[in-house]
Write a structure and sequence with these properties.
Elements: H1 3-11, H2 24-30, H3 35-48, H4 55-69, E1 77-88, E2 97-105, E3 117-122, E4 136-141, H5 149-158
Antiparallel strand pairs: 1-2, 3-4
């Protein structure tokens, strides 16, 4: 990205409060972001922020805007040697829907299906409510959240421009 492009895009944020007088620190921190990602990040900041964002916040906006247009990350699949046909009743009437299944999904964690959330049933597992209530389903963070490679890949796919703050 060029300095002129960055200044022009930052100028779009003039409607936000607290606009800085100097854009030099922004150039040092943001020059590696591609044009389209930066333009989308500025648009996201205009829609979601009240105060003029610091460079780290703009990098987050670029990541957020990027994830909306980014290809989804799917679990690994395995080709089935013998394809089977599954019949699903047509919800609108008429002929049932016939789908040929040729691949099987493989999850790294069978408990949560690589979502990071495991389903629980109350009262079998107590949900934490302190008042009388009926049985229901609730979710908790799955134990695989730290080690699951599919969840890690999804997180890495959605973060490209933002870095964790450094300790002082």
């Amino acid at each position: 990205m060029t300095r002129e492009f960055m200044d022009k895009q930052l100028g779009r944020l003039v409607a936000l409060r607290g606009m800085p007088g100097d854009s030099d620190p922004y150039w040092d921190a943001l020059q590696d972001i591609p044009y389209d990602a930066f333009r989308a990040g500025i648009a996201h900041a205009l829609r979601t922020r009240t105060w003029f964002p610091v460079p780290a916040e703009l990098r987050l906006d670029c990541d957020t805007a990027r994830t909306r247009t980014h290809e989804p990350v799917y679990p690994q699949v395995e080709e089935l040697p013998d394809a089977k046909v599954v019949e699903i009743p047509n919800p609108f009437g008429g002929e049932p829907l016939r789908i040929r299944v040729t691949r099987e999904w493989r999850h790294d964690c069978e408990t949560c299906g690589d979502t990071g959330w495991s389903s629980r049933q109350c009262p079998d597992t107590h949900c934490g409510r302190r008042f009388d209530h009926g049985p229901h389903e609730f979710v908790e963070q799955c134990a695989c959240l730290e080690w699951n490679p599919t969840i890690r890949r999804r997180k890495e796919a959605h973060v490209k421009y933002h870095t964790k703050p450094e300790a002082a």
